[in-house]
Design a protein that fits this description.
Blueprint (H helix, E strand, L loop, with lengths): L6 E5 L4 E8 L4 E8 L5 H5 L7 E5 L3 E2 L18 E3 L2 E2 L12 H7 L3 E4 L3 H11 L2 E7 L4 H10 L6 H5 L5 E3 L6 E7 L4 H8 L3 E7 L4 H6 L4 E4 L10 H10 L5 E4 L1 H9 L4 E17 L5 E12 L10 E6 L5 E6 L4 E4 L14 H15 L2
Parallel strand pairs: 3-4, 4-6, 5-7, 6-8, 11-12, 11-13, 13-14, 14-19
Antiparallel strand pairs: 1-2, 1-9, 2-8, 3-9, 10-12, 15-16, 15-17, 17-18, 18-19
Helix pairs in contact: 8-9
Amino acid sequence: MIRTYDCKIVLDDGSEYPGYRFGAKVDRVCEIVFNTSIVGYQEIVSDPSYTAQMVVMTYPIIGNYGITDEDFETKIPTLGALAVREYNDIPSNFRYTKTLSEILEDHTIPAIEGIDTRKLARSIRDSGSRPAILTGIDVSTEEALRRLAEARPPHDQVRQVSCKKRWYARTSNHRFNVVAVDCGIKLNIVRSLNGRGCNVTVVPYDTAAADILRMEPDGVFLSNGPGDPEDVTPVIELVRQLRGKVPIFGICLGHQMIALAYGGRTFKLKFGHRGGNHPVKNLTTGKLEITSQNHSYAVDAASLEGTGLEATHINLLDNTVEGLRSRTDRVFSVQYHPESAPGPQDSGYLFDQFIAMMEEAKRNA
């Protein structure tokens, strides 16, 4: 059967990528980005860090193993839109419960297949992530550009994705109590802490420092999340009030907010880091880690001078800061995802480092 194009992506330079709809049948304006992961499309679709973004998957076949209830990173996906080369709607996986298209439709997320994702990814690489619209094939280029021009970039996405009240993830024979500040936390982070003997209390991003200290945590975790770290002023101030009082571990957005709390600066990358193949050097051990990443912003290395923070890891592709620590305050962070699932497991030791830090704090209390 001959298929006819029924939708297209239009970029702000007027370039068009026609294809076929799946998922929700709605139009959407988003920031367009690309991800180089070979597996893990369910985790990408359900990662809150992708809130309001259109993700272009560079791996050509997506959907072939369906969606599995146990593998979500959040209960309510907030992805803006999805673009793939070839969508497979007949999954082969004994664990699958729904197709990718069904999940996207359930959460009003539009998607497009049949486009040249290699060309589109190169365009993003060369010109940067920028506004794009997924719309019907019959919409004129002029109308699409008008809608793009009228759209306003989202801000304060953390408020949208953070939990509204605290919740708990307990484990048997726990050794530590960790408070996790939810800026868009991935569930596998909670699982990783549970698996190391931590009871986890997940709290909204704007929880006051005094309320957290009343919970008597052995450590505080700052999660990943979407958007500009400078928008998340409650968490930046929280770090300022908690540093030196309790061990703190931050991942991704948490890493950036720690830098801002100590007086550093962040900046937006041209097209971000997204995928499971980024080489990072541990400056303490000299070892190379293959990491999974998903972020648009990075810490300005030059701004760290005099802050009390030191860089512990760097990205070998562009020399951006991938890890920070304050020796005196028991604070450390990484830009990448040591809990990535599926993904490289090189960096799981960072959770063990957090455990060791909490053990030391207990001994010295």
